[in-house]
Each structure stands twice: as structure tokens, then as C-alpha cells.
From TrEMBL, chains A, B:
The lineage of its organism: Bacteria, Bacillati, Actinomycetota, Actinomycetes, Streptosporangiales. Residues 74-134 form the HTH tetR-type domain. InterPro entries: Homeodomain-like_sf (IPR009057), HTH-type_TetR-like_transc_reg (IPR050109), HTH_TetR (IPR001647), Tet_transcr_reg_TetR-rel_C_sf (IPR036271), TetR_C (IPR011075). It comes from Marinitenerispora sediminis. Gene3D superfamilies: Homeodomain-like, Tetracycline Repressor, domain 2. Keywords: DNA-binding, Transcription, Transcription regulation. It comes from the Bacteria. PANTHER family: HTH-TYPE TRANSCRIPTIONAL REGULATOR RUTR, TETR-FAMILY TRANSCRIPTIONAL REGULATOR. Residues 97-116 bind DNA. This is TetR family transcriptional regulator. GO terms for molecular function: DNA-binding transcription factor activity; transcription cis-regulatory region binding.
């Protein structure tokens, strides 16, 4: 379903969306690349103008709002999952409802009921979609470099205003709503599997011992970032993230 | 000031308080020991009955409600600092006020204004008083044993219902109220200094290299506990806490 928002987008909004998204996404929206091999079309020539407008209404600069490949169904999914997180940041999980999400995403409520069984599923999938874009899994051929990129992306994601807002709301609501813990476990199970594959490639290359407890390593990799953002109110910079990576890898290989 | 609550305490409440506090605190309230070298007095012989009653009204079983040494001034402090945390758990930091704290603690508002400059100071001191009781700093002569006891106490404190309630409220409110970050930094600066002394004794005994970055080690020691409680919704047990300690100490000495 083409979003209602797409149909009413004003040219100046579309212009902002273009500036926000980066031009490469415009002329070949199916290729998620930041390189720029040939000159962009002028924006008025872009055929996928409604798809561009989908990215307009909120959170400019958020990577997950950028164009992703896929047809109408994928666009509806994206609009819905974005709306879920926006609703949570604005009003908390308790007030989240299929009705409000449908209204915000500009889709029919029935569409949501067809695709998601309940709020817990919706939350887990929205978090996975957001984090999948904001914190991609690197594969540079070097575990140290991969983990540096991973921690940098996590640090940027959880210390951004939007990321902090979402995280703090969920941490707070989870004390009252047990299903948030369920969604958190679904989310983290998937994220640990993805990060586990990154670490696993390092093990295969001999950068870590074969008996490495991958999940325990990932916990100790990301925990200090969350501690600083949520608990001790200390800043995080790239050097700090790198120190965590180095401490883990150096100790794992020194043993 | 003797608390109003103390004067109206019923014998059965005092009995509960005694059961809660542990008898050693009764007959020698100035000695904070759990050992029991001679038979306790019967509770009706206890002279400090009003002090006992101070511990009655709320949060039975919370270690910070136990009797601590000190006179009237110390008791007022304790009542006020307890009231601060109770108010925050119930209503959040934004609604915290000297008026409400004074009313809850049963003391005059002027008393609070004499002792604390603002809410930020009050929060930092309340957190330090609570955590000082709930998470004492061990000194067993072995760094590994000290850090195990420390992580066990932290895990128990932050996963208890009261501890989680307080932590989640502060994490949530800190996104809206910058002075919570100020109080957090005061709190953590003091706690890191105390834990740093524990680690420092280990360094002096040769259990860690002299160039150990003590603060970085403490961050990596406690971070996985907070990650599991606040973020990944995974349970913590003593074996997990011990693994964190072992991983840190074994890697620090293997390098």
C-alpha cells in the first residue's frame, strides 16, 4: 500500500528527504551503496518519488529511514515498524496499540493483524529492523576491525538522542510490562546470533581460540557501552570502544 | 529529631523490625556485625526502642533499613535518605521535592534545607547510603574472593524488586532530567573510589600487575551485570558473576 503520507508530500519535503538519504539511494534505490559511480539524476526525474516521500515525516538522518530494496509489502513493513518505535518513544509501550501504529503508518489496521500476532512480536521485529540498519554486521576479514566497527556503531546508536530515548523508555517500561522482556530476548537472541557469526569467522581464521565462549565474549564487548550510556553517565568515544575490543582480544589470545 | 513514626510504633511492628534487623544489631547497635558472641537481651529490655521503630514502616528486609550507629542526627539523615529513594520509586525524580521528602520522613522541611543544597545532592547521598549498606566493600585478603563477594552483592542489589524499580526509574528519568546524570557521576565517582581501594589492595599483594587500569577493570566487572538486568533480560546467578571475575583476573595476570 502506498502510504497516504507519500501522496501529500510537498516538493520541499522531498528535497529534504533527498538531502537526508544521500543521492546514491535515489537513482538506484535497489543498491544500498554510498559510492557514487555516475552523476545523479535531478530529483524531479526520479521515478520512485513516492518511495522517497516515505522517508520524510520523521527522524531525518536516521539510517533506518533510508530507502531499502523491496516492493510494496516491504514498504508497508518499514512504515509500520518505524511507527512502532516512534510511538514507544513518544508514549511508552503501555499505550502502544495496533490502532495507533496503523494510523501513524497510514495503513489499514487489518494489515497489521495479518502480519503480527501481538505487540511483543511487533516490538521485537521493529527493534531488529531498526538495529539491522543502524548497526550492520561488518565482515572486513579482520576480527579486531570487525569488532571495532561493531562497537562504534552500537555506541553511536545507543548514545544518539533517538536511540537513548527508545532504550530508556524500554528499560523503564520493562519493569512494569513482562512482555517487553520477551521481546528483548527475541531481539537479543537474533543479534547475538548475528554477532556470533562475526566472532565465529574470527575463530575460523585463528584470531581466537576454538574454545571461545562467543556469547560471553559478546556480552563483555557490549556491556561497558550500555553501562556508560545508561548507568554511569560517562561519555563514550571511539578510543574507549577500541580499548574494550583490544582488552578482550588480547586477553583471549594471551591465555 | 525523634521521628513521629517512632512514637506510634506498635509492639508487633517492633517485633517485626527486630526479626528483620537481626538480633546482633539490637543489643549492640553500634557494632555492625552478624556474629553473635553472647545471648541477646529480650527485646523488651532494649533501650533504643525508638531507634528500632525507625526501621519499621517500609521495605522490610532491605539492608539499608537496618540500625546504623549514630545519634539523633544520623537517624534523621537515614530517615530522609530512605524517604528520597521511596519517593523516587513511587513517583519518579521529577515529582521529588524537599516538602514531600520531609513529610515522608517525618522531619521538618527546614532540617532538609540546612543539610542539602538541592535535589541532586539529596539523590547522590541517598544512593550512596543505600548502596553502602546493600553492597559493602569486602576485604578478605584475596582479590578474587573480594570481587566475587562484590559482584554477588551488586547482582543481588540490582536484581531485587526494590533495586530494579529504583534503577529503572532513574535510567528513565535521566533522559529528561540532566541533574540525574550529575548525581550519577557523584555516586559512581565515590563507588569507583571504594571499589578501587579493594582492587588496589590486590595490586599491592601482587594479584594484579602494577599497571592495572583499576577503573577500567571495575567497569568491565560490573557492566555485564547491569547489561543482563536492564537490557538483555537474562538472569544472573553466582556462577555467572564468578565467571566475570575469573575472566578479568585470569586475563590480567596472563598478559
Amino acid at each position: 500500500m502506498r502510504s497516504r503520507r507519500a501522496c501529500v508530500a510537498r516538493p520541499e519535503d522531498v528535497g529534504l528527504a533527498i538531502a537526508d538519504m544521500g543521492l546514491p539511494f535515489l537513482w538506484r534505490p535497489d543498491v544500498a551503496t554510498r559510492t557514487f559511480p555516475r552523476p545523479p539524476l535531478l530529483w524531479q526525474h526520479v521515478v520512485a518519488i513516492e518511495e522517497v516521500a516515505m522517508a520524510v515525516p520523521s527522524r531525518r538522518g536516521d539510517p533506518r529511514r533510508r530507502m531499502r530494496p523491496g516492493g510494496r509489502s516491504a514498504r508497508v513493513n518499514e512504515a509500520v515498524l518505524d511507527a512502532v518505535l516512534d510511538e514507544i518513544v513518544e508514549s511508552g509501550y503501555a499505550k502502544l496499540s495496533f490502532e495507533r501504529v496503523a494510523a501513524r503508518a497510514g495503513v489499514h489496521k487489518a494489515t497489521l493483524y495479518r502480519r503480527w500476532a501481538n505487540k511483543e512480536e511487533l516490538l521485537a521485529e521493529a527493534l531488529l529492523a531498526h538495529t539491522g540498519s543502524a548497526v550492520p554486521m561488518p565482515d572486513t576479514g579482520s576480527l579486531r576491525e570487525d569488532l571495532r566497527r561493531l562497537t562504534h556503531a552500537i555506541a553511536a546508536n545507543i548514545s544518539s538522542p533517538d536511540g537513548q530515548g527508545l532504550l530508556r523508555t524500554l528499560v523503564s517500561d520493562a519493569g512494569r510490562v513482562p512482555e517487553i522482556a520477551g521481546a528483548a530476548r527475541t531481539f537479543w537472541s537474533e543479534r547475538f546470533a548475528l554477532a556470533g557469526a562475526v566472532v565465529g569467522r574470527g575463530v575460523e581464521r585463528g584470531e581466537l581460540p576454538p574454545d571461545t565462549d562467543v556469547a560471553f565474549l559478546i556480552e563483555r564487548l557490549i556491556a561497558p557501552l550500555f553501562l556508560r550510556v545508561l548507568v554511569t553517565a560517562e561519555p563514550i568515544d571511539a578510543a574507549y570502544a577500541d580499548r574494550i575490543v583490544d582488552a578482550l582480544l588480547d586477553s583471549a589470545t594471551a591465555g
